[in-house]
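Hi F.,

I've been meaning to write this up properly since the lab meeting, where we talked about keeping a consistent format for the predictions we share between groups. The idea is simple: the sequence comes first, exactly as it goes in, then the structure tokens exactly as they come out, then a line or two of notes. No screenshots and no reformatting. I'm using this chain as the first example so we have something concrete to point to.
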Amino acid sequence: MNIFSTTYSEILEILNNENKESVVMGDFNIDLLQFNKHNPTDDFVNNAFSQSFVPVITKPTSVTYTSATLIDHIYTNNVTNPSHSGIILTNMSDHFGIFYIMENPHKTSYLNTYINEH
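Output, unedited:
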């Protein structure tokens, strides 16, 4: 986990230095719910925060009769543009689906264009 965390932190640093809106997601198998009990997980989360990336999924993504874990992650450095994220509850897999929708700040709706032209 230490090698992965170090490499991941380096990737986030590169993305952060490019000053571009970025989203990173995946099945990391690092239970974010354990950050206060497991030092490597705490370090992993703090490294993301230090590179201006925040997790947008904050509830369990894998639930069984005996456990609940948050191991499917989505991080973004976009904290100002409107977005929507969530968990899709399903029993098709041992993980729930997760999603993140960013609104395009440069998109002009048809209605706005019509109003401005008339």
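Notes:
The chain is about 30% helix and 25% strand.
The chain has a mean pLDDT of 87.

If this format works for you, I'll send the rest the same way.

G.
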